[in-house]
Amino acid sequence: MNIGNYSIGKDNKPFIIAEMSGNHNQSLERALQLVELAAQSGADAVKLQTYTPDTITLDIHTNEFFISNEKDLWKGQSLYNLYKKAYTPWEWHEAIFNKCKELGIIAFSSPFDETAVDFLEKLDVPAYKIASFENVDIPLIKKVAKTGKPIIISTGMASVAELDEAVSTVRAEGNNQIILLKCTSTYPATPENSNIATIPHMKELFGVEVGLSDHTMGTGVSVAAVALGATVIEKHFTNDRADGGVDSSFSMEPHELKQLVVDTERAWQCIGKVQYGPTEVEKPSLLARRSLYIGEDMKAGDEFTKKNLRDVRPGLGLPTKYFDLLLGKKIKVDAKKGTPVNWELVL
């Protein structure tokens, strides 16, 4: 599968997505700066979110439209005001996408309703992302599937049946370009509730590329996910958590994103294939193995003893497993101390 000019799959390094979300803090200048920092850090793509407060919720500030949970990152705000603070103005999208193109990285977005899909189609996005909270929004998924473009679906909270319905909806539209991202919809998430063992299971179950939408801090969970087969990693990104913002507390800073790029590529490189025996680069190290050597000068006809037959490095002599077999046998010719033992020396 290709997104833009990037191939997704086990034969390619992980595709790293820097999720801008609302970390622009309602400043286009900051948004463009984030694109530059993401590119400098080695990200392959920048992702936006395309909605307005009115396309995602209702202008109500009480009851279930108000976040009162004391443990919630966004407690004390209405959904409407939160999304008003977090959304990316649609008139910014073209400038942000053009900046990405200028810097050679991919730009795409998560639409949250059908009007957002229509808008993003006019900008010719190369792919779409379905957020975890929308992975059960079948009309939206169908609308995106009809574009024929790659679809990345976060799987937070979704049951197997719900994921099957989402994947089947995409395939029913003749679109088989699907990537599922394991996701834990807590902000931030912890390693303990990441359950990335799901990644290879999900790949086998649905026959699609898999990855991780990672809300944990640091790079460890993402690196482990790559080792389990993740080919896409998505992380929220900001220029400085201290600046605040709706997602800043669980977002990566530039130096951390750069480390993520390095660490996940190393994890991908080290997977390799099933391998036994020395690789080409290991073959010179065979010399460091122990083997059998003459431990003191010997005359033709002398018997091998524990004193004159030594098990030492380097490895040019017979393997040490023959030590007991050679004891008591005689040597054919004179041999000096330090001579590697071979069968031609043995009577």
Automatic annotation (TrEMBL):
The gene is spsE. It comes from the Bacteria. One of its GO terms (biological process) is carbohydrate biosynthetic process. Gene3D superfamilies: Aldolase class I, Antifreeze-like/N-acetylneuraminic acid synthase C-terminal domain. One of its GO terms (molecular function) is N-acylneuraminate-9-phosphate synthase activity. CDD domains: SAF_NeuB_like. Residues 291-347 form the AFP-like domain. This is Pseudaminic acid synthase.
